[in-house]
Amino acid sequence: MRAGNLTLNNKKELVTELRMFLATRVQDSGCLSFKIAKAESEKNTGRFILAKYKYGDSTDRVRIFFTDPKKLKDAVERQRLRGTIVERIKQVDSSARAELEEIHIESSVQEIRTFLKKYPNTVFYSEGLMIERVKETG
Question: Where are the domains of the chain?
Fold first, then answer.
């Protein structure tokens, strides 16, 4: 499937980009996989973002729930998913604490599907982004 993406570059030019994404079902949940664009994150270009979607009261409204990095970290630490956690030490006054910087899931697609079947809501934010279809006027 394809969707459009608009960004404003450093020269203040509007850049249109077609974005490929995969929509699939895992049991009762609709899942989306987006490839990260260079404009969003130069160092993560080519990696993927996982999200879940639910239709609102009609198919004109869809709510998208993105993954919560803290919940993904927990899934990796509990060995429910394979992955690498990258943290950096942040100095606060006289104490230091680890802060999550990146998390990379290394599980296969089948392992992720199995995880989502077993724990369908575990790694997603509880609040979603509502998108509504705009009807042409005129």
Answer: 2-68+109-132
